[in-house]
């Protein structure tokens, strides 16, 4: 079974590292947290259940 040369391991490590960094930065900057306005809209739609015993 052939072995990989050290330059191939370095190239593979660089490719995986760049992929990881790009993936994490895209996830970080595309994350949209819920704004307080949208939270208030959700709370207004909620109808409380009044139990009549």
Automatic annotation (TrEMBL):
Instruction: Give the family from UniProt.
Output: Belongs to the ATPase protein 8 family.
Q: Which UniProt keywords apply?
A: CF(0), Hydrogen ion transport, Ion transport, Membrane, Mitochondrion, Transmembrane, Transmembrane helix, Transport
One Pfam family cited in the UniProt record for this chain:
ATP-synt_8
Main subcellular location: mitochondrion
Regions crossing the membrane:
6-32
GO molecular function (one): proton transmembrane transporter activity
Classification from the root reads: Eukaryota, Metazoa, Ecdysozoa, Arthropoda, Hexapoda
Query: What name does UniProt use for this protein?
Result: ATP synthase complex subunit 8
One Gene Ontology BP term is:
proton motive force-driven ATP synthesis
- Residues forming coiled coils: none
């Amino acid at each position: 079974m052939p072995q990989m040369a050290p330059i191939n391991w370095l190239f593979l490590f660089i490719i995986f590292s760049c992929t990881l960094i790009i993936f994490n930065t895209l996830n970080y900057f595309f994350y949209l947290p819920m704004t307080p306005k949208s939270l208030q809209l959700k709370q207004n739609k909620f109808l409380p259940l009044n139990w009549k015993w």
